[in-house]
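pasting for ref
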Amino acid sequence: MAVSGALHIIVDQEVTVNQQNKARCTMEDFACISLLGRWMYEKVLLAEQTRETREMFAIKAINKRGTVHYEIVERLMCEQTIIEMSTNACHPFLVNTFTSFQTQLHACFVMEYAGRGGLLTHSKGRSFTEPRAIFYSGCAVLGLEFLHERNIAHRDLKLANLLLDSEGYMKIADFGYCKEGMGVQDHASTLIGTTDYMAPEMLTDKSYTRAADWWELGVVIFEMLVGNTPFNGNNQEEICDRILTKDVQYPSFLSKEAVLIIQKLLCRSPQLRLGAGERDAQELREQLFFREIDWSALLARKIQPPFVPTIQGGPKDQAHPKTVWGISNLVSTLLEQQQPEPSAFHLSSTVHPRRLGTLPHTFHHF
C-alpha cells in the first residue's frame, strides 16, 4: 500500500438508523468535558451529546497528518474493522463504537463511555479478591475468544485497557494494536504492546502467534491477585531480562487454582501455553480457577458483578483539572472544516444496530 500525504476518510454510503435524521454527525453535536487520555497521534475526549439524550461518550480523535506511515495506516484500518465487527455483534465485553465522523485534520470515533475507570485505576497497586479477579478474567476470556474466533490478536491486554461500565462488568478497550489474519498457526513480527505484559517470544523470536494474548492474560491475573506484575523492574532492560529468565514468585496467599492457571498461561514455550491450540479459550474455560463461572450466564450479563463502582456526582465531576489541559485548542481544531478531502482508502459501510438517540449511525471509512 502506498501512502502519501495525510490519511483521509470517506463515506461509502450515507446510512442512518433514524431515517428522519439525515444530518451528518459533527463535533458540534457534542459538548466536550475533559481529556481522558492522549498518545502520539490521538486523544480521547469525554463528551456529552447535546441533543435529546444528553448521553456521555468517549470520542477518539486521531490526527490524520500524523498517520502517514504504512504500519500506522494499517493499524487504523484494522482498528476500524474490529470496531465495526464487535459493535455490530454488540459484544458485552468489548468497548463498542456507535458512529464516526471527520474533520479536515482528525478522524473521530464516537465510543461508549465505560465511565467507571480502568482496572489499573481501581487496583492502585493493591490486589483484588480472588472472586473479583476471576470475574474480570472471565470477561477477558470471552472478549479474547470473540477476537480469536475472527482470527484477531489483541496484543496489548493490560489493566489500563480493561474498563468497568456502570454495572460493574469489564470491557476490553483499545484495538489500536490488534492484528488481523491471526489464526492458530499465523504469525506476526511487529514488536508492539506494553513491555511488562509482553510474551517472551515477542522479545526474542522473529515472530509470534496469538498465544501472546494468553501470556498477557496471565500477567493480568497475577497483577490483579498480587498488586504488581510478575516481572516488574526499574527499567525496560531489566523488565525484559526478567520476562526471559526470572522464575515467577507466587505469594503463599494465592490459591492453588490461581497459581496453576497463571503457570499455564506464563509458559515460556508458546506452543505449550494454555490456549495456544485449536481449542483456544475453551482450554481456559475448563480450568479449576473458573469452576464457579456459568459461561452462558456471564456472556448474557446475568451474573452479578462482585463490585459495582459508584461515583460522586456525575461524569462531569470526574474530570481532574489537569486532564483538561489543551482541550480548548483541540476542540477548536476539531470544529474547523468539517468537510473531508478525497480519500485514498475505501471500504464498505456498516452501521451499529442500536439506536443512539438522534445521533446518526454512519461509519466513515479509511
